[in-house]
Amino acid sequence: MKAMVLNQYGDDAEFTVTDVAKPSVSAGHVLVQVAASSVNTVDTMIRTLGEALPLSPALPAILGMDFAGTVVEVGEGVTGFAPGDEVYGCAGGLADLQGALAEYMLADARLIARKPRNLSMREAAALPLVGITAYEGLQRGGITAGQQVLVHGGSGGVGHVALQLAKHFGARVYSTGGGEAQLDLIQRLGAEPINYKTEQVADYVAKHTDGKGFDLIFDSVGGANMANSFEAAALNGHVASTVAMVDLDLSQAHFKGLSLHVVFMLIPMLHNHKREAHHHILNELTNIVEAGELKPLLDEQRFELAQAGQAHARLQSGQAMGKVVIDV
Predict the structure, then answer these.
(1) Is the pLDDT confidence value at 321 over 90?
(2) What is the number of structural domains in the chain?
């Protein structure tokens, strides 16, 4: 089969079209003919940082975590899938798991689910990593109907899904963005846009919550922005962060009695730990999508498998609006 292979890591690392052996199906797994794969920030980090990241695969490597495709073979013990099923998931591209930038990939059946019928393969491939991340963060934050929920970075890959899921769960949703296009998208998705470049945290907390703070904050920006999340949170509120690698004074979180939830959705893949949870979440996402309450946004530029490097560059440029998808 054809695959895009990395033979070295680094800022200038290039993908090479290579003929490699098609994987053989194994117990508990399915062999999938890949139709599309989306690019996530973690994919670009692996390519550039390589061994500096403990989750990077050994070279030569086939990256690509997210995919949508068709089951062609089913391994021993797999009962939920059959050849011909259209599926999606986040099941490779790190550690010892072959990625989706290839014509075929082997996927643990616990990491995939039936593709939503009303999404194209390209749209479905855009959803797994960001969808699981957003769903997990909101659930761990204890989201309930009627809450005031703030999503930081609501026009981003994870953020635009978290925003839609929060609405699905019945919350009143607000979201920060930094430009006209971002704020317009946030409004189109049904949330109240907040321009973080022109509005101070104290101002929008006063304006939207009468100074009480938001019940739940989903922070897809993270890092230093976590301090803004703590400031914007209500007493005994919840903050879910996808980027918590930061040195930060937790005094404000202490005096407000906040709960911090760090979401690192790759744990089941990396450690073979409760992988069935991802199957469950993906099934829930399929139901939500088919109910018309969630739709991933795709970047306007299209890329073929041989253009994987250009797709990575597009995401890294910061100019993409929506998920960058590669047609396989």
Answers:
(1) no
(2) 2
End position of a domain, from candidates 262, 281, 314: 262
SS (H, E, C) the chain: CEEEEECCCCCCCCEEEEECCCCCCCCCEEEEEEEEEEECHHHHHHHHHHHHCCCCCCCCECCCCEEEEEEEEECCCCCCCCCCCEEEEECCCECCECCCCECEEEEEHHHEEECCCCCCHHHHHCCHHHHHHHHHHHHHCCCCCCCEEEEECCCCHHHHHHHHHHHHCCCEEEEEECCHHHHHHHHHCCCEEEECCCCCHHHHHHHHHCCCCEEEEEECCCHHHHHHHHHHEEEEEEEEECCCCCCCCCHHHHHHCCEEEECCCCHHHHHCCCCHHHHHHHHHHHHHHHCCCCCCCECCCCEEHHHHHHHHHHHHCCCCCCEEEEEC
pTM, rounded to two decimals: 0.97
| Residue-range definition of the domain harbouring residue 312 | 2-127+270-327
Q: Specify whether 156 is located in the same domain as 209.
A: yes
Same domain? 276 vs 307 = yes
Same domain, residue pair 6 and 63: yes
Q: pLDDT tens, 53-93?
A: 999 999 999 999 999 999 999 999 999 999 999 999 999 99
